[in-house]
Amino acid sequence: MAHTVTRLTRFNMTSLALGLAFLYLPIVILVIYSFNASRLVTVWGGWSLRWYHEFFNDRAMLEAAWMSLSVAAVSATLATLLGTLAAVGLARGERFRGRALFSGMLYSPLVMPEVISGLSLLLLFVALNAERGFWTVTIAHTTLTMCFVTVVVQSRLSALDRSLEEAAMDLGCDPVRAFLMVTLPLIVPAIVAGWMLAFTLSLDDVVIASFTTGPGSATLPIRIYSEVRLGVKPEINAICTLVIALIAVIIVVASFASKLSSARGESAAPL
Amino acid sequence: MSARRIFARPARFAAIAPYLWMVLFFLVPFGFVLKISLSQTAIAQPPYTPVFDFSEGRAALAAAFAQLSFDNFGLLVQDNLYILSYLRSLVVAVTSTLILLLIGYPIAYGMARLPQRWQAVAMMLVIVPFWTSFLIRIYAWINILQHDGLLNQVLLTLHIVSAPVVWLSTDSAMYLGIVYSYLPFMILPLYATLSKMDASLLEAAGDLGASPRQAFWLVTFPLSLPGVGAGALLCFIPIVGEFVIPDLLAGSNSLMIGQTLWLEFFTNKDWPVASAAAVALLLLLVPPLVLYDRLQRRQLEANR
Hints:
Helix content of chain A: over 70%
Structural class of chain B: mainly alpha
Order of helices and strands of chain A: HHHHHHHHHHH
Largest sheet of chain A: none
Oligomer: heterodimer
Strand content of chain B: under 5%
Largest sheet of chain B: none
Largest interface: A-B, 101 and 105 residues
Helix content of chain B: over 70%
Order of helices and strands of chain B: HHHHHHHHHHHHHHH
Number of helices of chain A: 11
Distance between the termini of chain B: 20 Å
Radius of gyration of chain B: 25 Å
Shape of chain A: globular
Number of helices of chain B: 15
Number of strands of chain B: 0
Structural class of chain A: mainly alpha
């Protein structure tokens, strides 16, 4: 007999269903409205691609989108590189001097209010006399997102069976070779997921980018933000839908990569 | 020497590059915030008088120390605007965290009770909105909440209200936006502890005569407290400094500290005061940050 204390109750199901509806309904509504033909956002005027057309003719918006995509790609790549190295150091480095400071520096940005991170980086860039624009935003985003990559990769590394690495070294691999041939293939999915997460976080950020960018190089979120402050515009619905579609593709790829990995992990284990 | 020890050395070398990066772009910038928060406002570019100039030697440095100014912090304490925005930030963060707990707990609890293969799906469904841009998600709510938005249309059609209700630029809209944006941050740590819970404990409670409600309050809830703590910190800390959500959804008559900082920086161009506000905000956040860091490390190290 199923225990009454561990059963899935109607209350459990209702709260789950309501919770998910709450999370998804606004996004669904936004996507539907982006195909609205009417200029009035709230009056349904039939299906149309009018606002997408408008976006693809909006030079300033397109430039901002391009800037955002390139910042996201470059910063995600840098962040993945640095974050993976940091994760290896934390998960495999045992004890070393400054370890507490290191992990503290890596965990704090995950929750640090963005106004603080943005302001402090800007002051650094001003002090260094760096020209603000693409590179300053990229560095700022790298700093923030590498921490997320570290957490993702580190938790995968911690879950790995270390006897695999030890076996490789017993069989004569030096540590670097053991890492490259045994560990790295097993954590590739986490690295891919980390890159994707870094990419989307960078694509999303408005606060840090506002602080660290210079005149004339606005990112897409900065443009969206300033438009939204002036009121709702149907074109923004279309842009947001495109961003959501892009992120959906990224999520599918990321989850596919992780599925691939768990299959490979299982087949690798008996070796 | 064990293979594990041999591995540790090159692994430590791997940490050098990210270590230096974080020192340069995370730690050192705080030094600049501190430094500029102690300098005087000036009408110049950049708009503050330099406090230290290391090229001028030790004597100049000593003279500069004598000139350090705590005026900006004095301003923070004297001016009502700042104290009020601090208090408001705290109130908003505490209230939102409580609402998030109330809403997030039943959802996480429901997830943990699903059959195993559905749990993975539910988890995915909760994580996905975290990936979608949160600016977009706030914008989606503006669509719904505006004067002639969907919510008012529905309410009018159902004759629940007779005239459109003002939703935007109110505190309720802001709380809705905050809860909506941070819900995954609350659900995931809660789910992580709830799903790891040993079901036999509950069965034992049941065998000993506990009703489901008693079993929940006497067994499940106390055991889930680490998840409650992690979720609460994960939400509380960033909400205190939140800028975009209150700026877009709340009215402009009372500001949160993040908004005040933004205003001082971008509108008033008063960098020293903005920096002082950042330092004060950071001081406020140090205890929860330390607590959060400890929880994180304990959790990751427990996995090893």
